[in-house]
Design a protein that fits this description.
The chain is α/β, with parallel strands linked by helices. Helices cover 38% and strands 17% of the residues. The chain has helices at 2-20, 34-38, 41-61, 75-82, 152-155, 193-208, 224-234, 281-307, 310-316, 336-346, 361-369, 403-417, 442-445, 447-451, 455-463, 472-486, and strands spanning 100-104, 112-122, 127-132, 139-143, 161-167, 175-176, 181-185, 216-220, 243-244, 252-259, 321-325, 349-353, 373-377, 393-398, 420-425. The N and C termini lie far apart (72 Å).
């Protein structure tokens, strides 16, 4: 576009010169013989040459790098356009019908944009450019590539990206990629296990699966700890190193990019929305197994060497394993020790898990993948049901005021994975709130009327101030049922 504008300027100037110097261009319409007009021909020719040279070099003496339309984009983009190439490597030019930015903003949970053509990153301006061969006006899309679109408070913390379509050829590539990019953010609620899977890993799987690992992940708001924690999983989705969009200042060039992630619901994959119409959450579970299997084999071998022949004996007399997620503070089971002893008397081998943010996920996966029953109180740790084999039993203890969240976020998704789900709803007398409020208080008698007031009421009363003391006689029926199912 810049060259086209300069060409137009030359044409205008030449037109003005033709009016100013008609003799040079043979535009003098006055009468007279041809001999009289040819007399100053050499002088006019020299004058024409001088003027033409001025017009040719004037644009470089008074160079303006941007056409006026580009002032719609912030000044940092202007700096990008003014940079001189350090690496002139160029990808093949796409055809005009392949140059596009198309955004789908109809989803309740997420926006997603598809880019095709000459795509170039520019992290200093939080921009991704699409250069076209068309002489179109500059257009721009703004997107926050995170899957909590409806939740304004958290989306306000997620950085936005500018997707800019413009024409021009004054640009360069420093890193040329032959495979597409998927661009997303690990900001928002990242740090909470449920959100790391629900808002991040599963949508990433859904979005990138069709590329069969031939894709580059470009992460906005990148965290090194996230890559260390989920590197085994990410390596099953991409054969290429992650690009830290913010810190990597190089210009990365792609022919195709998806900005934002697709999401189907809570911890699930909807086959009807997948390209092959058959991929389910079980395929994601298989991917987790592939990701963690090498490390699990290593841990198994180490244990076998440590215990030597005892491992084989233990396998022969193996009891059904129950994995219990233990909590401290809010929603802790205050009589947990008695519950563990009860489960052991019923016939379970019990393993109590107390993971923190530094716990290696492969170790948790190893325990759950070899367990027939998982038990825990509603909370983010229940996301670990994804680590269980289909056919296992998942018992979720549901404190007062958490019925809807427990069923929606974990109960229903667990069924889709093929688990036998049991929701144990505690009675008011099993809640620590029973000692704090009158028996007829709506907090105990009608939790739904409280939770309808909003998240802050739910969180302040039922999530952060409640503990559980199980009625073991009542809970024994649940464990007995789970034991029977685990021996089928």
């Amino acid at each position: 576009m810049m060259r086209q504008n300069l060409k137009k300027v030359e044409q205008i100037k030449q037109y003005e010169s033709m009016k100013m110097f008609p003799y040079v261009f043979g535009l003098n319409n006055s009468s007279g013989s041809s001999a009289k007009r040819s007399k100053p021909k050499l002088i006019y020719f020299l004058l024409f040459t001088l003027i033409s040279s001025c017009f040719v070099f004037a644009p470089y003496l008074f160079y303006l790098p941007y056409p006026s339309a580009l002032f719609l984009i912030d000044s940092s983009i202007k700096e990008f356009e003014d940079q001189v190439s350090q690496n002139i490597t160029e990808p093949p030019k796409p055809s005009k019908n392949e140059e596009s930015i198309l955004c789908d903003r109809t989803g309740y949970r997420t926006d997603i944009c598809f880019m095709k053509g000459d795509i170039r990153t520019h992290s200093p301006s939080s921009s991704i450019f699409l250069y076209t061969s068309n002489d179109d006006h500059v257009s721009q899309e703004i997107i926050k590539p995170y899957t909590r679109k409806w939740e304004t408070s958290i989306m306000d913390t997620v950085g936005e990206l500018k997707l800019v379509k413009l024409s021009g050829d004054k640009h360069s590539c420093q890193v040329v990629h032959e495979v597409p990019a998927v661009v997303f953010s690990t900001g928002g609620y990242t740090g909470n296990l449920y959100h790391e899977f629900n808002d991040g890993l599963i949508p990433l799987y859904i979005t990138s699966k069709r590329f069969n690992r031939k894709v580059v992940f470009v992460i906005a708001e990148y965290h090194k700890w996230w890559e260390m924690k989920y590197g085994d999983v990410v390596s099953q989705l991409s054969d290429y190193p992650i690009v830290d969009f913010t810190k990597d200042k190089r210009t990365h060039c792609f022919k195709e990019a998806i900005v934002g992630l697709k999401i189907h619901g809570e911890l699930t994959v909807d086959p009807s929305q997948m390209q092959d119409d058959r991929t389910t959450i079980n395929e994601f579970k298989n991917l987790l197994d592939q990701a963690y299997r090498p490390r699990i084999n290593e841990l198994d071998a180490k244990e076998e060497r440590r215990l030597k022949g005892k491992v084989a004996k233990r396998r022969k007399a193996k009891k059904p394993k129950l994995a219990l997620f233990s909590r401290t503070g809010s929603r802790a089971i205050t009589n947990e020790d008695q519950m563990v002893k009860l489960a052991q008397r019923i016939g379970f081998q019990v393993e109590v898990l107390r993971p923190d943010r530094t716990t290696e996920l492969a170790k948790i996966y190893r325990v759950l993948n070899s367990s027939t029953v998982m038990v825990g109180v509603h909370g983010a740790a229940m996301t670990h049901f994804l680590f269980m084999k289909p056919g296992g039993v998942f018992v979720q203890i549901i404190p007062l005021g958490t019925d809807w969240a427990a069923e929606t976020y974990y109960g229903e998704p667990a069924k889709k994975l093929g688990l036998d789900y049991i929701g144990y709803k505690i009675l008011p007398r099993e809640s620590s709130l029973y000692e704090q409020y009158d028996k007829n208080d709506p907090i105990l008698r009608d939790p739904g009327s409280i939770t309808q007031k909003g998240w802050q009421f739910t969180k302040g009363i039922y999530l952060t101030k409640q503990q559980v003391r199980l009625d073991l006689r009542r809970f024994k029926k649940i464990l007995t049922d789970a034991y029977a199912k685990s021996n089928r």
